[in-house]
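Hi W.,

Here's what went into the run:
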Amino acid sequence: KAGVTQTPRYLIKTRGQQVTLSCSPISGHRSVSWYQQTPGQGLQFLFEYFSETQRNKGNFPGRFSGRQFSNSRSEMNVSTLELGDSALYLCASSWALGGGTDTQYFGPGTRLTVL
Amino acid sequence: SQKIEQNSEALNIQEGKTATLTCNYTNYSPAYLQWYRQDPGRGPVFLLLIRENEKEKRKERLKVTFDTTLKQSLFHITASQPADSATYLCALVIGLDDKIIFGKGTRLHILP
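Here's what came out:
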């Protein structure tokens, strides 16, 4: 079956702009989690959505938001971009909430560069 | 403060030898610990999960140990191959809501 897909794969924006990233989970998976990966901070949890509701949230400012649709597809939005938002944004899907004991499947990521 | 530390920036191991990667944590009480592999330009791939009441878990050439007293997990790759070269991430699963906290990873190079 098809894996997790993320669009776009690469994105260049300027400071102050906003951006929307999209994630399509594996068919049948209802949980989608978003992560930010940078060389300095590593992989950091942003939020998790399950059945269209945000169930978990990491320590990121309110400029980072997301949503999940009835077909489990998810989008994340970053408003008022800052240089420090340049990162690889990864989404992961799993069948169950939390992903603790349930395998998470990661997408290839969206590489965001903020100039 | 809460920390997850994975040993060294990069680890060079000769092909055929056993590679051992370390994951240490402080001020966490994880119920589970996961290991992932990440190749350049790709998302992490889940490898193994070990529960707090399990001492050891094996999968083919991979072995993971989990010592909750030492607050440490060791990840072993036996008979290592150049194709095993990648970054390996450990992740703690904590709390009632199964929040996942990742270490920064160890880059492993298997030298032919």
